[in-house]
From TrEMBL:
Source organism of the structure: Calditerricola satsumensis
Listed Pfam families: PGM_PMM_I, PGM_PMM_II, PGM_PMM_III, PGM_PMM_IV
Alpha-D-phosphohexomutase C-terminal domain location: 523-549
Domain Alpha-D-phosphohexomutase alpha/beta/alpha: 42-180, 209-314, 321-447
Name listed for the protein in its UniProt record: Phosphoglucomutase
Superkingdom in the source lineage: Bacteria
C-alpha cells in the first residue's frame, strides 16, 4: 500500500470530517503516518481491534463503515431473505462505542439491511443470545474487551450466535478488500432509517428472556444461596446491571464496589480493565476484608470474561486463574449432575489447547469426553453447533484459560454473567459442605496433580513488531527446543503445517485441528509450552503449564520453564512471586 497516497486522501478529501483532518495535520513524524496507513486493520475471527484514531490502521467511523460495507456485501451474497432477517448490534462503555454502533447500523441500513440497536450498553453474551432469539443473520458488538482505554473493536457473530470461524472471517475480509473506494460509502441518515423501519430498537423482552434462562441454571437451595457473601465489580463496564440482576434474583446477597460501578470509558480506577490482573482487585480487597466476602467477582468491560478471588481458610484472598476457575466449575457441574442423575451418556467438556490438562482425570472419572479446540471461544461455539448437527455429544461446559466460561448453549460465546452465577453456585454448594473454593481447588490438585500455569504476553507494536514476531516463530521452527527448564519435550505440535512429532521416536502424526500459526511443545506429564501470535493485538503469547508434587514444587518448575523459554526467544525474563 502507498501509505502517503492514503494519508493525503484522508487529509484532503471532503468525505473525511474536520476532526480527522486536524488529527492527521498534527502528526509530525513520517513513521507515525506509515503506522497509521501502511495497511487496513485486519478483519480476523475476532473482527477488528485497534487504537482509536485517524487512519486505515486505526478504528474510527470510516474503518467501521468500511468493515460494515464488506459485511453487508457478504450478507447480500446469501440473498434477500438474509438481509430481511437483519443484524443486531450491541456496544460497551468504551470511547466512541455508541457512535461506532450507530455508524454500523446506518451503513447496514443504506444497504437495505435491517438493524436492531440497543439503546444502552449491553454485554457481549447478551448480543450472542439476541442473535439466536431474534433470528438475525448476524450480530455486531463494538468492544475491545479488556484492552486499555485507547482501543476499541468490532466483532461479528453469525446466525448461531457464535463468533465467526476462520473461513467466514476470510470471506468477509475478502468482501472488505474488494471495496475500491471507501468514500462511496454513505450511511443512511438516522431519522430516515427509523422512519423507514430499517433501524429498530432491540425488543425489551430480550433482556428478561436472557435473565430467565440464566436463572434456570440454579441448583442450590435458597438457604445455601442466602448464606453467601459476594462482592462484585464491573470495572466500569457493561456487567453492572446484568450480573447484579441475576445474582440478586437468584437470592444471593451482593455488594458492589461503588467506585467501579458506573460506566467510564477511561476506566479511571485501573491501569487496564483486565480481570486477569491482580491490580484491578485493589479497591475490592479493602471492602472484602471488612465484609468477609466469600468471593470477589470482576467482569471485563464487555462482560465476557470473569476474574475470581476466593478467601482461603486463613482469611487471605487468592486470585484464581482461568484454568483453576474452569476446573472448579467442571468439578462442580459434573459432580452435582452425577448426584442428580442428569449426567448424559455422551456428555462433553470442551477446552482450548492453551488451557491446562488438569481436568483430564476428572472427565475420565465421570465418563465425560474432553475435547480440545484452537485458542479462541469461537472454536468452542463452533463445536457446540457441530454437536447439534451431528448429535454425537451433549455439551456440558466449555472454557479457556483467558477467563472465559460457558455452561449452557443458549449463548454461544464466553459469558461472564453466566459464569458469575455458576461461581456463586459453586461457592454456595461448597460453603454448605464446610469448604471454600480454594479448598475445592486443592481437592482437585490432590486428585489430578498440582498444575500451575502462566501466560507471558510480549507487546511488539507496528510493522517492526510483526517482523520480530515472525522471526521468533521461524527460529522456534528451525531449531525446536528439546527441553524447557530441564523438562524434556515429548511432543512438538506445529499447527501451521498440521503435523506433530513424537520426539523420542521421530514419529510424525497428523493434527486434527485446523491449521494456525501455533507451536505446542508438550511434556510427558501433560504440561506444555505453547507459542502463538495474538489474533487481535500486536502481541506474542507464550503459555506455560506444569505439574508438581505440591504447589511449591510446581511453582519452582514453572519459573524454571518460563525463564528458559524466554531466554531462548531473547525476551526479558519476569519472575512472579
Amino acid at each position: 500500500m502507498d501509505y502517503m497516497k492514503l494519508y493525503r486522501l484522508w487529509l484532503e478529501d471532503p468525505y473525511f470530517d474536520e476532526t480527522i483532518r486536524q488529527e492527521l495535520v498534527s502528526i509530525g513524524e513520517r513513521k507515525e503516518i506509515e503506522d497509521r496507513f501502511y495497511r487496513y486493520l485486519e478483519f480476523g475471527t475476532g473482527g477488528l481491534r485497534g487504537l482509536i484514531g485517524a487512519g486505515t490502521n486505526r478504528i474510527n467511523r470510516y474503518t467501521v463503515r468500511h468493515a460494515t460495507q464488506g459485511l453487508s456485501n457478504y450478507i447480500h451474497s446469501f440473498g434477500p431473505a438474509a438481509a430481511a432477517r437483519g443484524v443486531v448490534i450491541a456496544y460497551d462503555s468504551r470511547q466512541c462505542s455508541r457512535e461506532f454502533a450507530l455508524e454500523a447500523a446506518l451503513t447496514l441500513n443504506t444497504n437495505g439491511i435491517l438493524a436492531y440497536l440497543w439503546d444502552s450498553l449491553r454485554p457481549t453474551p447478551m448480543l450472542s443470545f439476541a442473535v439466536r432469539e431474534l433470528g438475525t443473520i448476524a450480530g455486531i458488538v463494538i468492544t475491545a474487551s479488556h484492552n486499555p482505554p485507547e482501543y476499541n473493536g468490532y466483532k461479528v457473530y453469525w446466525e448461531d450466535g457464535g463468533q465467526i470461524p476462520p473461513e467466514r472471517a476470510a470471506a468477509i475480509q475478502a468482501a472488505i478488500r474488494a471495496i475500491e473506494d471507501i468514500t462511496k460509502i454513505h450511511p443512511m441518515p438516522e431519522e430516515e432509517a427509523r422512519a423507514k423501519g430499517f433501524l429498530k430498537p432491540v425488543p425489551p423482552e430480550i433482556d428478561r428472556k436472557y435473565y430467565d434462562r440464566l436463572l434456570g441454571l440454579v441448583t442450590t437451595t435458597p438457604e445455601q444461596r442466602a448464606a453467601c457473601r459476594i462482592l462484585y465489580t464491573p470495572l466500569h463496564g457493561t456487567g453492572n446491571i446484568p450480573v447484579r440482576t441475576v445474582l440478586t434474583e437468584a437470592g444471593y446477597p451482593v455488594t458492589v464496589v461503588k467506585e467501579q460501578e458506573h460506566p467510564d470509558p477511561n476506566f479511571s480506577t485501573v491501569k487496564c480493565p483486565n480481570p486477569e490482573e491482580p491490580e484491578v482487585f485493589q479497591l475490592a480487597l479493602r471492602i472484602a476484608a471488612e465484609e468477609q466476602s466469600d468471593v470477589i467477582l470482576a467482569t471485563d468491560p464487555d462482560a465476557d470474561r470473569l476474574g475470581v478471588m476466593v478467601r482461603d481458610r486463613n482469611g487471605n484472598y487468592r486470585l484464581l486463574n482461568g484454568n483453576q476457575v474452569g476446573a472448579i466449575l467442571v468439578d462442580f457441574i459434573l459432580s452435582t449432575r452425577k448426584a442428580k442423575g442428569t449426567l448424559p451418556p455422551n456428555g462433553a467438556v470442551i477446552k482450548t489447547i492453551a488451557t491446562s490438562y488438569m481436568i483430564e482425570p476428572l472427565c475420565r472419572e465421570y465418563g465425560v469426553e474432553l475435547l480440545n479446540t484452537h485458542t479462541g471461544f469461537k472454536f468452542i461455539g463452533d463445536k457446540i453447533r457441530e454437536f447439534e448437527e451431528t448429535g454425537t455429544h451433549t455439551f456440558l461446559f466449555g472454557y479457556e484459560e483467558s477467563y472465559g466460561y460457558l455452561g449452557a448453549t443458549f449463548v454461544r460465546d464466553k459469558d461472564a454473567v453466566m459464569a458469575a452465577l455458576l461461581v456463586a453456585e459453586a461457592v454456595a454448594y461448597h460453603k454448605a459442605h464446610g469448604r471454600t473454593l480454594y479448598d475445592a481447588l486443592q481437592a482437585i490438585w490432590a486428585k489430578c496433580g498440582c498444575f500451575l500455569e502462566d501466560l507471558h504476553s510480549v507487546t511488539l507494536p507496528g510493522k517492526e513488531g510483526q517482523v520480530q514476531i515472525a522471526a521468533i516463530m521461524e527460529q522456534l521452527r528451525r531449531e525446536p527446543p528439546t527441553s524447557f527448564g530441564g523438562i524434556p519435550v515429548a511432543y512438538i505440535d506445529d499447527y501451521q503445517v498440521g503435523v506433530g512429532l513424537e520426539v523420542a521416536t521421530g514419529r510424525e502424526y497428523p493434527l486434527e485441528l485446523g491449521k494456525a500459526n501455533v507451536l505446542h511443545f508438550r511434556f510427558a506429564d501433560r504440561g506444555f509450552v505453547m507459542v502463538r501470535p495474538s489474533g487481535t493485538e500486536p502481541k506474542l503469547k507464550i503459555y506455560f503449564s506444569v505439574t508438581g508434587k505440591n504447589e511449591t514444587d510446581a511453582h519452582r518448575r514453572l519459573e524454571a520453564v518460563k525463564a528458559d523459554a524466554l531466554r531462548m526467544m531473547n525476551l526479558p525474563v519476569v519472575n512472579r512471586p
